[in-house]
Amino acid sequence: MLLAQRALRDGDVGVGSLAVELGYSSESAFSNAFKREVGESPLRYRYRVREEQRSFRVGV
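Above: the chain sequence. Below: its structure as tokens.
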């Protein structure tokens, strides 16, 4: 899941494409596994960490 988190944080790949790259049978299967492991959906994770990065940059 660390590769998925890094890709969501730093890249622009779609969740469906990322699911295929990581070997999941569907976007839904990946999203369910991600949420189970990380505690939030892939899109929510992407939004949250990017907002945190923006806030950090502005605050520095």
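The two ends are 29 Å apart (CA to CA).
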